[in-house]
Design goal:
The chain is mainly alpha-helical. It is built from three helices and no strands.
Length: 194
């Protein structure tokens, strides 16, 4: 029975070492991973799975240690289990750091997307302002040309009003001369002795 337990203990230790190395490799992959977010999430999930398996193997080793007949072997295995638990606690901290890193990366990517949207909206607003400015400048130029036309029209109307006044005065003088001539002719014909 003791030989079977020794085999189980060795197998369990080998699996713990194997999972430990796999976790370390995955954590290194997370550090080296440039993205995208999906790849980081996949690596993070793999780390969690390996941690679950590692915890299970440590618990199995602890159970095997409790089943040992010799107290010295039992204490040695329990000490080994405690060492594995301490190492796992440090790795859990690394896992939480990896998770935090993943969350920060996700947040930064979200911020980057929001900034990209804001830049796009700013570009659209800028384009709209440029178009509005162009329209206002065109309208201003049109108003300037209309203003010139209106000024010319005002000058022409003023000139025609002066000419109208001059024409009325000339017509009045011509009419007065005509009436004076008619009166002179009538006077000479009717009253030649005067």
């Amino acid at each position: 029975m003791a030989a079977t337990q020794d085999v189980h203990v060795r197998i369990c230790n080998q699996e713990i070492v194997k999972f430990d190395l796999e976790v370390k490799a995955l954590i290194q992959d997370i550090r080296d991973c440039p993205g995208p977010l999906g790849a980081l999430t996949e690596l993070n999930t793999s780390v969690k799975e390996k941690f679950r398996e590692l915890r299970h193997r440590i618990q199995e080793l602890e159970q095997l240690a409790k089943e040992q007949d010799k107290e010295s072997e039992k204490q040695a295995l329990l000490q080994e289990v405690e060492n594995h638990k301490k190492q796992m606690l440090r790795k859990t901290t690394k896992e939480s750091l990896a998770q935090t890193s993943s969350n920060i990366t996700e947040s930064l990517m979200g911020i980057s997307r929001m900034m990209s949207q804001q830049v796009q909206q700013s570009e659209e607003a800028m384009q709209s302002l440029v178009n509005s400015s162009r329209t206002i400048l065109d309208a201003n130029e049109e108003f300037k040309s209309m203003s010139g036309t209106i000024q010319l029209g005002r000058k022409l109307i003023t000139k025609y009003n002066r000419r109208e006044l001059t024409d009325k005065l000339l017509i009045f003088l011509a009419l007065a001369l005509f009436l004076a001539t008619v009166l002179y002719i009538i006077k000479k014909r009717l009253f030649p002795f005067l």
